[in-house]
């Protein structure tokens, strides 16, 4: 790994590192992570801060966050970044509006990912992902550019997708939004799974979903919409 294209100012560096640790812990506290699986990142300057590989959320310290360029150049004297840094970097390169990413192996999303079943518009809250469907990105080995490319393709025009035989990934204009989307993806996956178990659900039509999107645009404290 080469020395460094990411410039960090000391104060925002510390603040961003603390925010990353809090988001990683929240992901774990909400039951989205299993052991050290899953990773969280946020965009900083020309690069990103990402969780290190192999450190569980409740053990991670702010100084262990890994600062790196979107192409994998790392600052020296750091831990190794999450093996999924390719995926995070590729998304930030393709989607300038995205500021934070949560990737996890949450149970129900992973069940559907292993069955390669996309989540349809069974519940109107799917609109939070910016789409009427949570698709499944094609299978590729974890930590590869092939997986990164497949995920970027499936995320086009939306904030979340499943990764075949792997898990889920959710985007946001902030760590809080990415977490919120990840929580919703898990809930929608559980609902889809449950309806499948009782004979199947009834999907909303595109017209019904269009109405939901209009209602969402004036609902709650929606800020920084990405799609
Ligand atoms: Zn993973």
Verbal overview:
The protein is an alpha+beta fold and 227 residues long. It has a single domain, classed as Class II aldolase/adducin N-terminal domain (L-fuculose-1-phosphate Aldolase), CATH 3.40.225.10. 37% of the residues lie in helices and 14% in strands. A 7-stranded mixed β-sheet has the order 3-2-1-4-7-6-5, with helices on both faces. The protein is globular, with a radius of gyration of 17 Å. The chain starts with 9 loop residues before the first helix and ends in a 10-residue tail after the last helix. Bound molecules: zinc ion. Zinc ion binds next to loops.
Residues in helix, %: 25-40%
Tell me the CATH topology.
Answer: L-fuculose-1-phosphate Aldolase
The helix-strand sequence is: HEEEHEHEHEEHH
Tally of strands: 7
Q: Architecture, CATH level 2?
A: 3-Layer(aba) Sandwich
**What composes the largest sheet?**
7 strands, mixed
Brief summary:
With 227 residues, the chain is α+β, with helices and mostly antiparallel strands. It has 6 helices and 7 strands, in the order αβββαβαβαββαα.
SSE inventory with pairings:
Layout: H1 10-29, E1 39-44, E2 47-50, E3 66-69, H2 85-94, E4 100-104, H3 107-115, E5 136-137, H4 145-154, E6 160-163, E7 167-172, H5 175-197, H6 206-217
Parallel strand pairs: 5-6
Antiparallel strand pairs: 1-2, 1-4, 2-3, 4-7, 6-7
Helix pairs in contact: 1-5, 2-4, 3-5
Bound molecules: zinc ion (ZN).
